Amino acid sequence: MTIYLPELDAHDVSFPELHHALTEPDGLLAMGGDLSTARLISAYSNGIFPWFSEGDPMLWWSPSVRAVFPPDTLTLNRTLRKQIRRYKLHFSVNTAFAEVTRHCAAPRARQPGTWILPQMQQAYLQLHHLGFAHSIEVWQHNKLVGGLYGVMIGQLFCGESMFNFLPDAAKIALVVLQQHLKAVAEGWIDCQLPNPFLQQMGVQSIPREEYISLLKQLKDKTVVKSHWQAGTIAQDIADA
C-alpha cells in the first residue's frame, strides 16, 4: 500500500495539523526536517514526537491514543521500598544526563537495534543544556543502575526512555520523577504509547484529543529553573 507523507521544510519548524496523521501506521504524521532544538520544542508543544530507526528518514508521530500518568498515581509500594533498602539506592536529578541517554540507547533483549541513535542523543543533550530536557538517576553507591529522561513542556513531563541494571530501578525512577514534579507542578507524565511495563505501573490511555487538551492546559505554565538544578533528590521525596 502506498502512503503519502508530508515532508517537512528545512527552514520551517511547523508541522501538519494532527488530523492528517495516518491511522495505519497509527499516528505517523510527517517525515524529514531535522532534530534542531526549535523543531523539537515545536513538536512536543503540539503533541508530536520523533521516532525512527537507523536507515529510516526522520519520522514524526502523534498517535491516536496516548499513555499518561495523572498526578498522584505513582507510589512506592512495599516491594519497591524493600528494593530501595535492599540495594541501598539513592537518587539524583540532571547529574548524569548523557550517561542516562547512552544507557537508554543500548539494545535490549530481543531488540537488536535502537531508535535512540547518536544524532538523537546529541539533540536531547542540546535540549538538556538549554534547560528543556531532564533526567532522573538511580544510584547504588557510586554506580548508575537506573534512570529516565524526557522533555519538560510547561508543567508536562514528556518521558522519552528509561533503563535499569537492577530489578525495578526503572519503576523506582518513574515514581521518583512524579514525586519530584509534585513539588512545583501537578505531576502529569506523558509516556507516549502504552506498553505492558507502563500498564503494570497503572498508566492510563487517553484519546489524542484529550491529550492535546491537557497539553494546552499545561504547556504555558512555568516551573522554576532551580527545581531542575543538578543534585541529589532528598530521600524523603522518594519515600513519600
Describe the structure in brief.
The chain is α+β, with helices and mostly antiparallel strands and 240 residues long. It is 31% helix and 25% strand. It contains eight helices and twelve strands.
The overall number of domains is: 2
Q: Give the CA-based shape.
A: globular
Distance N to C terminus: 51 Å
Going by CATH, the architecture of the largest domain would be: 3-Layer(aba) Sandwich
Uncertain regions spanning at least 5 consecutive residues: none
CATH class division of the largest domain: Alpha Beta
Overall average pLDDT: 93
The major pleated sheet works out as: 8 strands, mixed
Named CATH topology of the largest domain? Aminopeptidase
Q: Can you say what the CATH homologous superfamily of the largest domain is?
A: Leucyl/phenylalanyl-tRNA-protein transferase, C-terminal domain
Number of helices: 8
- Which structural class do you get from the secondary structure elements? alpha+beta
What is the CA-based Rg, rounded? 17 Å
Topology as a string of helices (H) and strands (E): EEHEEEHEHHEEEHEHEHEH
What is the strand content?
15-25%
Q: Main sheet: which strands, in order across?
A: 11-5-10-9-8-7-6-12
Helix fraction by DSSP (H/I, runs of at least 4): 25-40%
The beta-strand count equals 12
